[in-house]
Design goal:
Helix content is about 65%, strand content about 0%. By secondary structure, the chain is mostly helical. The chain has a domain of about 140 residues: Tetracycline Repressor, domain 2.
Length: about 210
């Protein structure tokens, strides 16, 4: 019973650490959010914090996984199912709009994305799986829209999904250098090039994704 209780407390503490880290990094930035700062925010020493993670890199990778859990629920899910493809794209544009409000998480994502190209990096598997998920999800959405005549028939859905993901990653890097860049506007411009005017893509404006990260 004691072991079970200790395990449950450990799970809850780890969750508290990740949610706190999301908030601290989003507000203060990746470079300014040291392990010491995160530890103090949850009432632990640095050693105590790293008891829950194998390394600083694993901690920050887990922070991004937690961010994605939130996004999955608010952007890529409608209950237990994917939302309508058109609504999914609307949700994604709103998510990118929200990114400008959490610059620290954008910085963290960009930094680890570059480092994770090394197969030995703790974030390597996370980013590889994330890319597959995004490409597959958008390929499915574009294929469905193409079937209903809402997506340009001569465009390869899978290839365009790769382009879309690459655009967003690149936009975030540019935005960090020039915050004046309109990330959601650029994404909407790209989508307008392949969506059929007057098609079923037209959906009611998406609600602001206040909980998205």
């Amino acid at each position: 019973m004691t072991r079970r209780g200790s395990y449950a407390k450990g799970v809850l503490k780890r969750e508290e650490i990740l949610l706190t880290a999301l908030d601290v990094i989003a507000r203060h930035g990746y470079r300014r959010a040291s392990v010491r700062d995160l530890a103090e925010a949850v009432g632990l020493s640095q050693a105590g914090l790293l008891h829950y993670f194998d390394s600083k890199e694993e901690l920050f990778t887990s922070v991004l996984r937690k961010r994605d859990e939130v996004n999955l629920a608010t952007v890529f899910r409608d209950g237990d199912e994917l939302p309508d493809p058109a609504q999914l794209l609307e949700n994604y544009v709103e998510l990118i709009r929200h990114r400008s409000e959490v610059p620290g998480l954008v910085q963290l994502h960009a930094a680890l994305a570059a480092e994770s190209a090394d197969p030995s990096h703790p974030s390597h598997e996370y980013f590889a799986q994330r890319l597959v998920f995004l490409r597959d999800t958008f390929t499915g959405a574009f294929t469905a829209l193409q079937a209903r005549g809402a997506f340009a028939p001569g465009v390869d859905a899978a290839a365009f999904a790769v382009t879309l993901v690459a655009l967003v990653d690149g936009l975030q890097v540019q935005w960090m250098h020039d915050p004046g860049i309109d990330m959601p506007g650029q994404l909407e411009h790209l989508l307008a090039l392949v969506m059929v005017p007057g098609s079923e893509r037209a959906t009611p404006p998406a609600e602001p994704l206040a909980e998205a990260l």
